[in-house]
Specification:
The chain has 293 residues and is an alpha/beta fold. Helix content is 38%, strand content 14%. It has an 8-stranded parallel beta barrel. Strand 2 (29-32), helix 2 and strand 3 form a beta-alpha-beta unit. The relative contact order is 0.13.
Length: 293
């Protein structure tokens, strides 16, 4: 099982520190942001100890393809209302693609965008325009469009919307999918019937496009369209369904990333990864995390 979590990347160790954090969780994968996800402030990649990090990854058994980079939330390619917001999104996505190359990663996870009341059809068309411009120098990088919950004017909450983007984008062969369990649950898909969900995904998109999974429980009922992550086994999806997903034979080579919330400022990932590996749900897990046991 290829599994890890979102980890921090901060001075002075940057990517090397992120790899060390992932290793401390018993992970063989990790996901980072190249800088704060809410703004455009970025350090030069040359300062981020990339070579040292990849050497440490080899020592820890973390493959290069198991390093996932997430684009910042401020990128909104679907914005049809403010030209300056769309232009910033395209420009910054171009820069992020170059940073992914410099960090020797291959996958950039991207939220498709929100149409800001312009309508879904207009928003999807705008995403295609933005991707066509931003991906002109895509090289060997793939962008994984994330499945969304559908809150507000979010796009990408249905498989057919992602298929539309792939079919119409100039560089569609470089578009993959990151499936978030909380998001698809909140969007209305039945995660407890995961074989049926995978079959629908296969028919509309194709399993060869599924390159990453975000493994999260949900604080909301199915179809709530709210997007509030819960710790593994402590939400509406439940441990059994999430355990089935991470061990699914069709997803053996797909990178799984936890994005579950901290428990009283304590990261839960070491505990949750161990629980998913063992298959035994610990209903006292949150207390143990708080106590550091």
């Amino acid at each position: 099982m290829i599994i890890g979590s979102h980890v921090s990347m901060s001075a002075p160790q940057y990517l090397l520190g992120a790899v060390e954090e992932a290793a401390s969780y018993g992970a063989n994968a990790l996901m980072i942001y190249t800088g704060p996800p809410q703004n455009t402030r970025r350090k030069a990649v040359s300062e981020m100890k990339v070579a040292e990090a990849h050497q440490r990854m080899k020592e820890c058994g973390i493959a290069d393809q198991s390093l996932i980079i997430h684009a910042p939330y401020i990128i909104n390619l679907a914005n049809c209302v403010k030209a300056e917001t769309f232009e910033l999104a395209v420009s910054f996505l171009k820069q992020e693609i170059e940073r992914v190359k410099e960090m020797q990663a291959g996958i950039l996870v991207l939220h498709p965008g929100s149409h800001v009341q312009a309508g879904e059809e207009a928003g999807l068309a705008k995403i295609v325009v933005g991707l066509d411009e931003a991906m002109e120098q895509i090289g060997d990088i793939n962008i994984a469009l994330e499945t969304m919950s559908g809150k507000g004017s979010e796009l990408g909450y249905r498989f057919d919307q992602l298929r539309y983007i792939m079919d119409h984008a100039k560089y569609g062969d470089h578009l993959k999918v990151c499936l978030d369990t909380c998001h698809v649950h909140d969007a209305g898909y039945d995660v407890s019937e995961f074989d049926a969900l995978l079959e629908e995904f296969e028919q509309i998109i194709g399993l060869d496009r599924l390159t990453c999974l975000h493994i999260n429980d949900s604080k909301n009922v199915q179809g709530a369209k709210k997007d509030r992550h819960a710790n593994i086994g402590f939400g509406e999806i439940g441990f059994s369904s999430l355990h089935t997903i991470v061990h699914h034979p069709k997803l053996e080579k797909v990178v799984k990333i936890l994005e579950t919330p901290y428990v009283k400022d304590h990261p839960p990932y070491r505990y949750e990864i161990a629980m998913l590996k063992s298959g035994e749900f610990d209903e006292n897990l949150l207390e143990r995390i708080q106590e550091g046991v």
